[in-house]
């Protein structure tokens, strides 16, 4: 049996091996209820943007810096650090066994909602991050692969790929075949888009 690393797969590979079908959603409001931000939330959001921008001016921001400067504070601000949600990092996925191959890998960040002892934990958000010089969609194939096993126990799961500047949200839906929906890409650097970014993260956190 051939062992494949998720990081080596292309989106085409994932479509062929896991059967995903791609769809598009043009408006976040079709999937989520977006609440307004308080002045304090907006102030903290633009402070995150300002601190990140200072590093961008110096050159490419490495993946670890992207997590430290943008992901961690955005997740904290949107409520992901509060109970009952737990954040896990560098999580090894259970191998996905196919007819002639096995896919393994390790995801960057997973937010789960702890369930009762008899229930599997609910996957809230899967995040794949890249350095600032990479395309935000570069982590899509990995994200789709990592989230695939969760669709066996829940109807849907949200994913996000980011390079710190741009944020691509994906909603994965269980079914035959499984589907994933690409939503409009958001940017931390543009005021209106950054506000929507935080609104979306808050809405996913409350699901």
Can I get a quick summary?
The chain is α/β, with parallel strands linked by helices and 207 residues long. Helix content is 32%, strand content 29%.
Q: Percentage of helical residues? A: 25-40%
Inertia-based shape: globular
Largest sheet data: 8 strands, mixed
Number of strands: 11
**Gap from first CA to last CA:** 39 Å
Radius of gyration: 17 Å
- The stretches of 5 or more residues where confidence is low (pLDDT under 50) are none
- Please report the first level of CATH classification, the CATH class: Alpha Beta
- Provide the CATH architecture: Alpha-Beta Complex
Strand content: 25-35%
- Helix/sheet category: alpha/beta
CATH topology call: tt1808, chain A
Number of individual domains: 1
Mean pLDDT: 94
Count of discrete alpha- or pi-helical segments spanning 4 or more residues: 5
* Series of secondary-structure elements, N-terminal to C-terminal: EHEHHEEEEEHEEEEH
General description of the model:
The protein has 207 residues and is an alpha/beta fold. The protein has helices at 11-18, 39-58, 63-77, 140-147, 191-206; strands at 2-5, 21-24, 85-92, 96-97, 101-104, 106-113, 122-129, 156-162, 166-173, 179-182, 186-187. The protein has one domain: tt1808, chain A (Alpha-Beta Complex). Strands 2, 3, 6, 7, 8, 9, 10 and 11 form an 8-stranded mixed sheet that branches. Strands 1-5-4 form a 3-stranded mixed sheet, with no helix packed on it. Helix 1 runs parallel beside helix 4, helix 2 runs antiparallel to helix 3 (63-77) and helix 2 (39-58) crosses helix 5 (191-206). It is globular, with a radius of gyration of 17 Å. The mean pLDDT is 94.
């Amino acid at each position: 049996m051939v062992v494949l690393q998720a990081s080596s797969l292309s989106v085409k590979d994932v479509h062929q091996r896991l059967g995903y079908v791609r769809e598009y959603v043009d408006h976040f409001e079709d999937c989520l209820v977006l609440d307004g931000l308080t002045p304090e939330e907006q102030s903290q959001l633009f402070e995150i943007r300002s601190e990140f921008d200072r590093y961008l001016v110096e050159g490419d921001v490495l993946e670890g810096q992207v997590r430290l400067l943008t992901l961690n504070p955005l997740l904290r601000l949107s409520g992901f650090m509060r109970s009952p949600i737990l954040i896990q990092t560098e999580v090894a996925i259970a191998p996905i066994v196919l007819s002639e191959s096995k896919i393994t890998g390790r995801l960057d960040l997973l937010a789960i909602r702890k369930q009762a002892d008899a229930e599997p934990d609910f996957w809230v958000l899967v995040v794949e991050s890249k350095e600032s010089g990479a395309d935000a969609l570069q982590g899509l194939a990995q994200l789709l692969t990592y989230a695939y096993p969760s669709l066996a126990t829940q109807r849907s799961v949200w994913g996000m790929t980011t390079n710190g500047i741009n944020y691509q949200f994906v909603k994965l839906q269980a079914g035959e075949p499984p589907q994933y929906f690409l939503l409009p890409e958001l940017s931390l650097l543009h005021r209106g888009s950054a506000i929507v970014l935080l609104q979306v993260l808050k809405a996913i956190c409350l699901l």
